[in-house]
Amino acid sequence: MKRREIIKGLGLLPLGGTFLGSILPGQSLLAAPSRVPKRNLLKELGIRSFINAAGTYTTMTASLMHDEVVDAIEYSSKEFCMLNEVQDKVGEKIAQMVHAEGAMVTAGAFSALTLGMAGILTGTDQQKIKRLPHRLEEAGIKSEVLLQKGHFDGYEQALYNTGVTIISVETADDVERAVNEKTASMHFLNCNAMEGKIMHEQWLQLAKKHNLPATIDIAADVPPVSNLWKYNDMGFSFVALSGGKAIRGPQSTGVLMGKKNIIEAARLNDSPNGVTIGRGMKVNKEEMLGMYAALDSYINQDHDKEWKMWEDNIGYINDAVKNIKGVTTEISVPPIANHTPKLRIAWDKNIIRTTRENLGDKLRTGNPSIEVISWGDEDNSISLTVFMLKKGEEKIVARRIKEELSVASS
Ligand SMILES: *Cc1c(COP(=O)(O)O)cnc(C)c1O
């Protein structure tokens, strides 16, 4: 994924494009709109909403919350609670759901990584908690984390935020050589598992051998739903998950789950505690309860039915465009992250005279506005997913892409 390109591309978007009036929270694929807002702020402020055929990209606001989540937020927003009590009770429930000893709601998977790392470094020692992220070694805090060379993708910045240094390793021998008295943990980036030479089980064995915590980032790796507990069952010391991607919790949430002592220590490093690196990662009670409601409904939904709907919808769009002269299509499912059907539409530039950017712009500025994956290495293809579409939007997406490809070929 080329995040920088996405950000660059989105910076150029025209403001105040087509307003669909249909991106209100509480609408889901399954339910009819249940709320009529008193004010339509998107319209008032001229904020473009769009059909999201790209996916759970942070800059595109990632996902829409189900009614259950909005209900949890709305209801709890009208009551006071003790923030730590909400986190205690929500964490306990989530821990049970994901087979972990402990869990907490964080401000995204990124904060989960920072706080989990902080918990490993400090334990419950208040002096160490205050010290992060400076001069760890002077304070007797371990300061090195091992990460496989193929697992560097930028998100390790979340670990650097605690003050650690990351040591790149490739082989088991490298691990043996790298471990020393400063080593705090061994981190694993699940979506890059195939880019490394050491897979989960061996990583865990190596960590166990050296009595180190093994930690894992699975931020975007649900579905399948079983990944929620798979890595806890395997024995990772902490697991970081995004709440606002396919699980459709509040976009700003994530979950840190894992060993009881790490979660306890991570919470000491977090808001509402004042002198901590986590104080700026505040999560409010509405988000905590919203995250819990999202997980609860995600775990209990009919995943086979949802998968079938995705296949039908991607098939519908594929059927609409695959026979256009010069077009070739391909349906695939990424094996780990964003594991959901994806359609690639490519064209012969001698027959269809448009580029990826141009087609992306036409779809974006058309009516209704549509976002697809219009970045990447190839100039003559776009890709799309259907898991963030609302009911019926697959028809609009199919029609618009067909129209634009037809115009470009005549
Ligand atoms: C999205 C993502 C994150 C960050 O998740 P947030 O919930 O946005 O903080 C971290 N790691 C990976 C691999 C991701 O895909």
Automatic annotation (TrEMBL):
Q: Which GO terms describe its molecular function?
A: L-seryl-tRNA(Sec) selenium transferase activity; transaminase activity
| KW Transmembrane helix (keyword) present | no
Q: Where is the Aminotransferase class V domain?
A: 171-266
Question: Which Pfam families does its entry note?
Answer: Aminotran_5
| The protein's required cofactors | pyridoxal 5'-phosphate
- Supply the alphabetized keyword list: Aminotransferase, Pyridoxal phosphate, Transferase
Signal peptide residue numbers = none
The source's superkingdom equals Bacteria
Protein name, per record: Aminotransferase class V-fold PLP-dependent enzyme
Native organism: Ginsengibacter hankyongi
